[in-house]
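Bumping my old thread because nobody answered last time. Still need a sequence for this structure:
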C-alpha cells in the first residue's frame, strides 16, 4: 500500500476488486487527512467515495460508520454502502462508499437563511452529540466544514467521521480553532466536554465572518470579550462561558439550557403592534404603510419553516427518549 492514492479524474470508471460493484467519478469533493473524497455514480445512485493510501487509515472510519448504522434512528453520520479495494497500475488502494449528503455547509446556510437559525441548529447538534457520546464515541474534529444542513426541514448532519475517537482515549484529529488545547483551556482527552467546547466555538463563530487569531495570553478573557461584543450571543452568554470552561458533563444539559435560552429570548421580544405603521405627510394626513405582498409571503414562509423545524425537533426528542426507555 502506498501512503497516498492517485488523483482520479471525472469520468474514470472501475469495478471494486472484491465486490465487483461499478463506479464512475463525477467530481472530486475534497481531501482529508486519510484520503480523498469523490462524488461518484454507483448502483445506489450518486454517492460519496473515500479512497485512501493506507487500509489501516480508513478502517477506523469504516468501523465508526458500521457502528452508527446499528444505532436506532441513525442520523449520526452518512450511511455506509460498500467497502472494497481498487487496483490502479498494479497498486491496491482501499476505499469505502457512503451516502452523499445533499445540502450546504452550516455557515453558508446561516448566511443565506439568517443567524436566527443558529440556536435551532445548535439544539439539533447537541442532541446528536448526546447520542454519539452515549454510544461511547467523541466526534473530535468538530468544525463547520464537517457539518451540513440538509432538508427540508433543515437538519444538521455530519459527514466526515475521521476524527471520531473512543471515549477516554486521546483525540486523534482536531482543528486548532475549535480545539480547547489550542486555547489552553483543557487537554485533548476524548470526553463530552471536548466536543461541547468545539460546539460553543462554532456558535461563537456564527457571529463573526472569519476565524480570529488566538492572543498571546489570556485566551479565556479574549473569548469572553468576543461573546460580549456580539449582541446575537448575549442570550447565550452563560451557556457559552460554561462550555468553554468545561462545566457541562454531557450534551443534554447544554442542550436543555440552549432551549431555555431560546424560550426566554422569544418571551422578551416585544410583540408586534397590530396597528400598521403610520407617517405624516406635509399636509399632516396619516398614510398607512403596509407590508408588501412579497414581504408577507416571505414572513409566512419563514414562520412555517420555523414551526416545521420545531415540530421535527419535538418528534426527534420523543422518539429518542422512547428508544432509551425501550
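Sorry it took so long. Here it is:
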Amino acid at each position: 500500500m502506498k501512503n497516498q492514492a492517485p488523483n482520479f479524474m471525472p469520468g474514470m470508471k472501475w469495478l471494486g476488486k472484491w465486490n465487483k460493484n461499478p463506479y464512475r467519478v463525477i467530481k472530486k469533493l475534497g481531501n482529508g487527512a486519510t484520503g480523498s473524497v469523490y462524488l461518484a455514480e454507483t448502483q445506489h445512485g450518486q454517492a460519496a467515495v473515500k479512497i485512501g493510501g493506507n487500509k489501516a487509515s480508513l478502517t477506523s472510519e469504516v468501523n465508526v460508520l458500521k457502528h452508527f448504522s446499528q444505532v436506532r434512528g441513525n442520523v449520526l453520520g452518512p450511511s455506509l454502502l460498500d467497502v472494497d479495494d481498487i487496483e490502479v497500475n498494479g497498486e491496491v488502494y482501499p476505499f469505502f462508499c457512503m451516502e452523499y449528503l445533499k445540502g450546504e455547509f452550516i455557515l453558508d446556510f446561516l448566511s443565506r437563511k439568517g443567524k436566527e437559525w443558529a440556536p435551532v441548529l445548535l439544539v439539533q447538534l447537541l442532541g446528536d452529540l448526546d447520542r454519539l457520546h452515549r454510544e461511547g464515541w467523541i466526534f473530535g474534529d468538530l468544525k463547520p466544514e464537517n457539518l451540513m444542513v440538509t432538508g427540508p426541514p433543515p437538519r444538521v448532519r455530519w459527514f466526515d467521521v475521521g476524527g471520531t475517537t473512543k471515549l477516554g482515549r486521546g483525540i486523534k484529529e482536531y482543528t486548532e480553532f475549535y480545539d480547547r488545547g489550542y486555547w489552553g483551556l483543557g487537554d485533548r482527552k476524548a470526553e463530552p466536554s471536548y466536543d461541547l467546547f468545539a460546539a460553543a466555538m462554532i456558535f461563537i463563530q456564527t457571529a463573526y465572518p472569519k476565524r480570529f487569531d488566538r492572543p498571546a495570553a489570556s485566551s479565556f478573557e479574549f473569548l469572553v470579550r468576543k461573546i460580549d461584543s456580539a449582541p446575537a450571543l448575549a442570550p447565550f452568554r452563560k451557556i457559552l462561558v460554561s462550555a468553554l470552561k468545561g462545566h457541562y458533563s454531557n450534551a443534554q444539559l447544554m442542550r436543555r439550557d440552549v432551549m431555555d435560552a431560546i424560550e426566554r429570548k422569544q418571551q422578551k421580544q416585544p410583540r408586534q403592534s397590530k396597528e400598521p405603521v403610520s407617517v405624516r405627510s406635509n399636509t399632516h394626513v396619516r398614510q398607512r404603510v403596509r407590508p408588501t405582498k412579497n414581504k408577507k409571503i416571505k414572513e409566512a414562509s419563514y414562520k412555517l419553516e420555523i414551526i416545521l423545524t420545531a415540530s421535527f425537533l419535538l418528534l426527534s426528542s420523543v422518539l429518542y427518549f422512547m428508544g432509551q426507555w425501550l
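Residues 273-293, 318-326 have pLDDT under 50 and may be disordered. Let me know if any region looks off to you.
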